[in-house]
Amino acid sequence: MAEQLTHDPATEVVGDGGSASGTARTRFRRFAPWLALGLLLVLVVVLGFFGRSGQDGTALSPVNPAPAGAMALAEVLSDRGVDVVQAESLEAAEASVTEGTTLLLHDPDSWLSADQLGQLSGIADRLVLVEPTTIMLSELAPTIRQAGLIPAAEADVALPAACQVTDATAAGAITAGGFAYRGDLICFPPTSAQGGPPSGSYAATAAQDVVALGNGAILSNESIDREGNAALALRTLGATPVLVWYQPTPADLAPTDALVDPLNLLPGWVNPVMLWLLATALLAVLWRGRRLGPLVAEPLPVVVRAAETAEGRARLYQDSSSLDRAAANLRAATLLRLALRLRLPATSSVTEVVDAAARHSDRSPADLDKLLRTDAPATDAHLVRWSQDLDSLEKEIDAR
Amino acid sequence: MSITGRFVLVAFLGTLPVALYPGATAILLWAACLLGAATLDLALAASPRRQGLSRSVPDTVRLTEACASTLTIRNYSRRPLHAQVREGWQPSAGATDPVQRVSVPGGESRQVRVRMVPERRGHLRVEHVTIRSFGPLGLAARQLSIPAPGLLRVLPPFHSKRHLPSKLRRLRELDGRAAVQIRGAGTEFDSLRDYVRGDDVRSIDWRATARRRDTVVRTWRPECDRRVVIVLDTSRTSAARINDEPRLDTSMEAALLLAVLAQRGGDRVDFLAFDRRPRARVASAAKGNLLNSLVKAMAPLEAELIEADWSRIPSQVRAISSHRSLVVLLTSLDSGSVEEGLLPVLAELTSQHVVVVASVRDPRLDEMRAERQSASDVYRAAAAERALLDRAAVKSQFRQLGTEVVDAPPHELPPQLADMYIRLKAAGRL
After folding, report:
1. pLDDT higher than 70, residue B382
2. Picking from A298-312, B23-37, B131-145, B365-379, which range would have the lowest pLDDT averaged per residue?
3. What's residue A51's pLDDT?
4. How far is CA A250 from the centre of its chain?
5. What averages of pLDDT result for each successive group of 10 residues across chain A (400 residues)?
6. What is the pLDDT of residue B184?
């Protein structure tokens, strides 16, 4: 409702005594800690994201300092003058291979197809296959074949070299584990081998230009320092001035195998519209979230229900099963009311009340004496019956 | 500042150009348009800082009665103000429409009326007024909360007023005006009048009868100008709720009825609210309407969560009245606090004054007592019986000291206290 009115300057308030910039400053000061906190959070997330991209978590990666990585080996090799090149893709690996190069190939997930493996065949002076699969062997080293697992039970047992390959004899022994291979040269045979053709954790072609390492763990940071692992690894990988360290990734999948991203099937306008709708939703939040002025506090009164003490006492009676006390209360109250109703003095005894009640009801004095004087409930059920009886007696006498 | 629903709608409409011309350009362009329009709107909105606010609130209002507070907005800027105005009344003020839209042309003023039905007795406050001033496009608004304190005194409702006519009639019956005079209704000589059948023969004035041909009786009227001191206990026991009303409020009702009745009966009424120190005082000598000053004094009273200091009551009563008076204590009869606090003091009070202790009885206890269906019911009945027995014991102790006790459920307490007053007056005990 709005109407013209006369002006009364005496009680009038104009503005809040501040200015728009003042309000903005106050607001900023109030929200500055939260803003700082938010920025910090964003910073931590961003740093975490980009910080992690420097090192990868792949097993046996030359830049992974974790126990499963192989950074220690790579560092030692570079210290000894070997140029360790980490190849990110098949093309990079091919390009990095020059004269006097060892190529390390570790592809436990079999990302490379047989054709792609074929491209790597014979390009390097020395090819070291870490835990090669059957396809890899058939493409790159047909003379080496898989010969099963070296049981995990032997993990703590060192495998002696037991061959004439200089790298292996220099190492002496390596930790057991991984796969066993058969080939022209076999070293570190599993101790539990029972008959059959000989196999070993280390297999090489006769010319030693392809080496299969059955146990990748000997290169890892965790166990490089055990037994002769380091010696074998350094000698196998450090024989040439350049070491190309290639671990294929899903990006190396042959193009024909690439899955079609279903999102690419959507029309081009979907993403911008989604973005815009998100922004609109944010605006709607701002619209609905802005309060019309501060909250108003209500000084609330204390709420104490008067009967609360009685309720509390009742629960105490019940929890401690104070049958006698409850019965005494009920009896005393009934006697008091009966005395009042039967016009007896408040000081009259129980027997007087019983006698008077007997005269005013159809019950026998003996019954009433039992009810009002001697009966002592022993169970809850008895108490309930007895108290109901008291109640009905009162009503009976009231009705007369 | 804030944005409006229209702003969000316009932003939503931007989905169309973004869909038609997908890409960053459309998004940025539309966002820039929105931002520009909002900025323009904000710049053109009337400044809420240049609005003069004055509020007129009724001085007092009885609880359960409706009232309205009027806020006058005077626009000192040249731009017209289109705004949403919110009065920041505390919730119990029961403002039905605290948020209203108002348009004030530049240099003029308009009123905003907020209807209120207060839900609580006491001093209800409003601290600020919030103005959200919209721009001409209605896309964005400038918002400001301006401190503009106000106060509404909500008085006790005095529901027991309805008992007043009947009690006044009974009071008048004590007076000589009633046809049948009961001897002993007073000691103060009122007038002589003709004997009518039914009058007490002992009240015949034989000398006056001798002078005249008819039989003449004397009439008396009850004493006037006696003092009634009502002491309202505002200590912790008065906070307890009985029938969802604090004991304090019920006691106030009783005190108001008694005060009005006693005043009409020609007595002087003093009121004192006390716990450890006096919270409110209304003196009989004060000018103006007694009822009015009483309700104003009672309005801000709240139960304090402290134990009452009864030992100071006799000196307080003495300070009010040095003569024999009717002292009415409106308190509770909870055994623990009474035995330690009130009982020792009562002896001293009763030696000097006529003392009435009035207390609200909790009907819930009687309900609990009567219910005996299950084991927990019976235990509750036993606990209720114990509470009632304790109460009865306290009452009989009071009566032995010569104190009158009024113990009644909430709705009965005011009329029963009034009855007690009439009875004492009729018995000439004042």
Report:
1. yes
2. A298-312
3. 66
4. 27
5. 44 80 88 94 88 68 85 89 86 84 87 84 85 86 84 68 83 84 85 72 86 87 85 87 87 67 80 91 94 90 84 94 92 91 86 89 87 88 92 88
6. 47
Query: Which CATH code of 2.60.40.10, 3.30.720.210, 3.50.50.60, 2.160.10.10 fits the domain covering B1-155?
Result: 2.60.40.10
Structure confidence at residue B412 (pLDDT): 93
- Chain A to chain B, count of Cβ pairs less than 8 Å apart? 235
Q: B74 — contact with chain A (CB < 8 Å)? A: yes
CATH 2.60.40.10 residue window(s) in chain B: 1-155
CB contact residues (below 8 A), chain B span 187-206, against chain A = none
CA distances to A258, A309, B236, B246, B391 from B275, in Å: 86, 22, 9, 16, 21
Look at residue B301 in the predicted model and tell me its pLDDT. 92
Give the distance from residue A47's alpha carbon to the nearest chain B alpha carbon, in angstroms: 27
* pLDDT at res. A154: 52
- Mean pLDDT (chain B) is 89
CB proximity under 8 Å: B 355-394 to A: 360, 362, 364-365, 368-370, 372-389, 392
Torsion angle, CA of A351/A356/A359/A360, rounded to 10 degrees? -130
CA B275 to chain centre: 18
Q: What is the CATH number of domain B227-426?
A: 3.40.50.410
Q: Looking at the complex, does the CB of residue A283 fall below 8 Å from at least one CB of chain B?
A: yes
CB-nearest to A387 from B239, B305, B372 is B372
Alpha-carbon span B35 to B38, nearest angstrom: 5
Cα(B360)–Cα(B160) distance, rounded to whole angstroms? 14
Delimiting residues of CATH 3.40.50.410 domain(s) in chain B: 227-426
Please tell me if residue B37 touches chain A, with a CB cutoff of 8 Å.
Answer: no
Say which of A5, A333, A387 has its CB closest to residue B388. Answer: A333
Nearest to B18 among A16, A276, A308 (CB): A276
Compute the residue count for chain A.
400
CB contact under 8 A, B389 and A329: yes
Chain B touched by A26 (CB under 8 Å): no
Contact A325 B382 (CB under 8 A): yes
Residue in chain B nearest A1 by alpha carbon = B112
Pull the structure tokens for residue B284: 């009989």
Asked if residue B235 has pLDDT above 70, the reply is yes
Residue A139: Cβ within 10 Å count: 20
| Tally of helices (H runs) and strands (E runs) in chain B | 12, 19
Using CB atoms, pick whichever of A7, A272, A308 lies closest to residue B18.
Answer: A272
Residues of chain A contacting B239 with CB distance shorter than 8 Å: 301-302, 304
